[in-house]
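[job 0412] stage=fold_complex status=start
inputs:
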Amino acid sequence: MPPYFMNESSEYTSDRARQAEKIALTPQEYKVCEGCGSIVTERTVACPSCHAYLFDAATDRVIAQAKLLAKRNQNAVLSSDLT
Ligand SMILES: [Zn+2]
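[job 0412] stage=fold_complex status=done
writing structure:
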């Protein structure tokens, strides 16, 4: 598991911004957790952050959330599964 997945330190802001950029380019591969706002891959069953099972897969929602997370460095995670 990549360190930035669990670590919310601000020193990882650039990683988050880069991930958000990738997510915004292929939003159809992601969805937003309704429980905590994390972005996970579309094949994720349960949120790794809050263990919720409800997700919003709307592409505009995913893009907006990715930009929000990159900018505000919130507690919510960005998906680590970007292979
Ligand atoms: Zn969640």
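[job 0412] summary: The beta strands are 30-33, 39-41, 55-56.
[job 0412] exit 0
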